Predict the structure.
Amino acid sequence: MTSKNSFWKFSIWNLKKRTWTFALSSVIWFFALPVPMFMEVQRIVENIGYAGTDASWQQQMLINTFMAGAGVHAFLTIVFAIFLGVQSFAWNNHQQKVDLYKSVPVKASARFWYINGNSLLIFSVTYGCGLILANAIAAFLGLWCSAFLYAALYSFFIHMLLFIAVYFVVIIAQHLTGNVILAVMGSAILIFIEAACQLMIEGFKNIFFNTI
């Protein structure tokens, strides 16, 4: 049996072993959220001060582009979900190490949940902190409004659902194939097939309307 103490003990141990993954995710979201937000807000503030640009319109543009991600955040989420899914599968099926607690092997179910739970934690904390920093920058430079908070919460919810969906598709694909390369390729097909179909639909719509 794996006690609650051992579950958290090994969960923390696994998280420490994957500190570099946490750091990588933090860097990615730092340069995807706070950095471009700071650069764009600073430019907008300068334009408002010298050219009398409408602040409300600029705020909406920032929300639509930087808080929602304009597709970039979704792409990064998918890539990182695939990466963490592959890494977690490797951790969970490592043949050269068995987690022990007082000389008793940790249950496979406990091992599965603390490893994959840490993957979700890594993404949620780093992405959430990136959104908080982006809001803080907008507030510090005087361009923040309540809509930023709603957009951040919505963005976090949508991207978290996207991460979970892609992540478990990768995990399932690896369990079915037993091969990382086949799993990643299969996951990519499953993940991007809907986007490709939607792109084709929009393309045919444009062709249709252009020929009327």
